[in-house]
Amino acid sequence: MNQPTFSQLLRSPTMLLAFGFGSGLSPKAPGTFGTLAAIPLWWPLQHLSPALYLSVVVVTGILGCYLCGAASRRMGVHDHGGIVWDEMVGYWLTMFMAPAGWGWALYGFVLFRIFDIAKPQPIGWVDRRVHGGVGIMLDDILAAGYAALVLQLTAWFIG
């Protein structure tokens, strides 16, 4: 399958979610647009208790293994750039227990994108060696871990 159209995404809930409600259709930087699409969905999540927030992230991460794997198989390309559910979950994980406010939301966005693009070890190794839906999700989860660590350290030093 070539790049799907938005109308094709609307006919497949799996593809619609995997492509971040259409944000992954961006011809330039789909991962960045997928991460941007995660921000308005994060806004209400930040008000949940830590346990409930983390539960949502775990469930969306597990769901992402299926969604990303199914979309990848349908596209015939491992980790097609338009598959951005992994970026969305990665952003939500980055923002777990982050301080409130748009400045922190932007800071988390920038940190996550830096680590997702740069892929410091072991992220790069996972990206090259672990395939399927788990592999698509795992490199972003690791990038989110790095980004969350830097965000939390920054908040601690500032606070």
TrEMBL record:
<keyword id="KW-1003">Cell membrane</keyword>
<keyword id="KW-0812">Transmembrane</keyword>
<dbReference type="InterPro" id="IPR026037">
    <property type="entry name" value="PgpA"/>
</dbReference>
<dbReference type="InterPro" id="IPR007686">
    <property type="entry name" value="YutG/PgpA"/>
</dbReference>
<keyword id="KW-1208">Phospholipid metabolism</keyword>
<feature type="domain" description="YutG/PgpA">
    <location>
        <begin position="17"/>
        <end position="153"/>
    </location>
</feature>
<keyword id="KW-0443">Lipid metabolism</keyword>
<keyword id="KW-0997">Cell inner membrane</keyword>
<feature type="transmembrane region" description="Helical">
    <location>
        <begin position="136"/>
        <end position="158"/>
    </location>
</feature>
<dbReference type="Pfam" id="PF04608">
    <property type="entry name" value="PgpA"/>
</dbReference>
<comment type="pathway">
    <text>Phospholipid metabolism; phosphatidylglycerol biosynthesis; phosphatidylglycerol from CDP-diacylglycerol: step 2/2.</text>
</comment>
<keyword id="KW-0378">Hydrolase</keyword>
<feature type="transmembrane region" description="Helical">
    <location>
        <begin position="15"/>
        <end position="39"/>
    </location>
</feature>
<keyword id="KW-0442">Lipid degradation</keyword>
<feature type="transmembrane region" description="Helical">
    <location>
        <begin position="51"/>
        <end position="72"/>
    </location>
</feature>
<keyword id="KW-0595">Phospholipid degradation</keyword>
<feature type="transmembrane region" description="Helical">
    <location>
        <begin position="92"/>
        <end position="115"/>
    </location>
</feature>
<keyword id="KW-0479">Metal-binding</keyword>
<keyword id="KW-0460">Magnesium</keyword>
<protein>
    <recommendedName>
        <fullName>Phosphatidylglycerophosphatase A</fullName>
        <ecNumber>3.1.3.27</ecNumber>
    </recommendedName>
</protein>
<comment type="function">
    <text>Lipid phosphatase which dephosphorylates phosphatidylglycerophosphate (PGP) to phosphatidylglycerol (PG).</text>
</comment>
<dbReference type="InterPro" id="IPR036681">
    <property type="entry name" value="PgpA-like_sf"/>
</dbReference>
<keyword id="KW-0472">Membrane</keyword>
<keyword id="KW-1133">Transmembrane helix</keyword>
